[in-house]
Amino acid sequence: MSEYSISQLGTFEECALQYKLNYVDKIKRYEEGVEAFLGQRFHEAMEWLYKERAFRIVPLEELLAYYEKKWDEKWHAEVKISRKERTSDDYRVMGRRFIEDYYKRHHPFDEGRVLGLERYIRFPLAEGSHYNCKGIIDRLVLAPDGAFEIHDYKTGSSLPEQTDLDADRQLGLYQIGVQTLWPKAKEVRLVWHLVAFDLEMRSRRTPEALEELRCEIASLIDRIEAEREFAPHESKLCDWCPYWDLCPAKKHLVKVEALPKERWKDEPGVRIVDAYAERWRKKRELEVEAKTVEGELEEIREAAIEFAQKEGVQVIAGTDARLRVTGKERVISPAKGSKEREALEQELRAAGVWDEVAMLDPSALERAVAEGRWTGDVLDRIKAYISTERRYTLTLKE
Ligand code: SF4
């Protein structure tokens, strides 16, 4: 039976190709961002603090020493620091500050009974689902009033708004899991520790909100299971993606950047792009020039029409050319989408002459087919007359 975690679902929404490489092809990568590395170390320190709490209160200095020890033990060459002006030490010290702040705010760590630490949960999203959802709850707590609390540590540097947390899928899904696995959990509270801000934020879910979330996740899973193409989707998150060498949007960059700069010119792809870029820039210069000339022609055109009207001539003589000025009445239809256009179409239909002026709009047909607007018999009948071809668009980024 397949299983889905919230991060898995989020990855699919961000980039289907990254999802495939990670979760379908299971290509392991050890590269991680320093922010994720810091988050892991913070989580470890909290897990240890609360584990020990069953026996004693760990002094702050000992907790910080534990954090530092894990930081050194686990640091590896694949930890990526994308902000060039920062060092690993900056992040290590930042993590220390998060621990100090948390420690001072929550000491002596007796806000309820701990039911689970880094607790793995697996549960069906709905009765009869052919897949399970899974996740790891940072800390599951039984509050003094009997409510279950799902605690989550966030070490990120962006402060979410209350509305973001009220719509947060991760803890919402965990609540569905907790209430499935422990039906005694009638009352559940969701708690975020935003340690970069020394702030705690909370949220609750109504049964209706949970049902809506359940449907949303089920339809996303259906989309994943029906997906065949797994196309790459570039975004700012590519900076944290470890699959550049396998991604069609990035792998040539990786290949070229691995070459010494003096060999770039000999690389076949580089040669194509350089040639394309040169012609493209030339075309752009010519277009600017053409626009200026078009403006000048328009002015002269108006002068010629005025001259022809004033002089009552159709042909104007030049030194080595003649200019013919011809006038012709044109019918102008109301703009597409306007009320007048709609009324005109109705008139034409009513007069029984619509077929004489209506035409197939190939772009509208292409859009309708691509968006899957028609299905079944209609689509089958249309498909007998149309064919498909792959069209390529080149976009030059300077
Ligand atoms: S580099 Fe970007 S587009 Fe390519 S797989 Fe990774 S996230 Fe997707």
Core attributes:
14 helices, binds iron/sulfur cluster, two-stranded parallel sheet, 398 residues, alpha/beta, six-stranded mixed beta sheet
In a nutshell, what does this entry contain?
A hairpin with a 5-residue loop joins strand 5 and strand 6.
Description:
- With about 400 residues, the protein is an alpha/beta fold.
- Helices cover about 50% and strands about 15% of the residues.
- It contains 14 helices and ten strands.
- Strands 1, 4, 5, 6, 7 and 8 form a six-stranded mixed beta sheet that branches. A two-stranded parallel ribbon has the order 2-3. A two-stranded antiparallel ribbon has the order 9-10.
- The longest helix has about 45 residues, at about 270-310.
- The two termini are about 45 Å apart.
- About 15% of the residues are buried.
- The model has no long low-confidence stretch (mean pLDDT about 95).
Strand tally, please? 10
- Bound ions, cofactors and other small molecules, one mention each: iron/sulfur cluster
What Rg do the Cα atoms give?
Answer: 32 Å
Number of helices: 14
- Calculate the terminal CA-CA distance, rounded to whole Å: 47 Å
Give a short account of the largest sheet. Answer: 6 strands, mixed
Give the SSE string.
EHHEHHEHEEEHHEEHHHEEHHHH
Oligomeric state of the chains present here? single chain
The low-pLDDT segments are none
Q: Using the alpha-carbon principal axes, give the shape.
A: elongated
Mean pLDDT: 95
Helix content: 40-55%
Helix vs. strand class: alpha/beta
What fraction strand?
5-15%
